[in-house]
Amino acid sequence: MSGLVLKLAPNERVLINGAVIENGEKRSKISIKTPNVNVLRLKDAIHPDSATTPVTRACYVAQLILSGDADPREGGRQLLLAIEQLSQVFDDRDSRNLLACATRHAVDGNAYQAMRSLRELLPRESRLFAARRQ
User: Residue 14: exposed, middle, or buried by beta-carbon count in 10 A (0-12, 13-18, 19+)?
Assistant: First the structure.
């Protein structure tokens, strides 16, 4: 098993199993060999006050699972529910593919990959809200 390889920018922070790790002044690469480790780049983290839209709330649930702040089973259930609700709104082919991918990852217990798929919906969600305001 090759594990997860993180390429970190200078001074970049990452959360690994609840511990915040900060890179030094040079770029570096970290290999994580242990399976099922919760990893979250803090630059990708969503502040609770910023989780104000359906997609950001779904991403936030995935983030809580990754940070260890949510029980994986209950968080996974909430994540699947959030994805189901998003599927009621996003009906284009590309969005459906992203939601299907997020669902597969959530069912497999891979909150990070589910969050990555969901984050790709953020620009689409912004466009929907912008069109609604006009």
Answer: buried
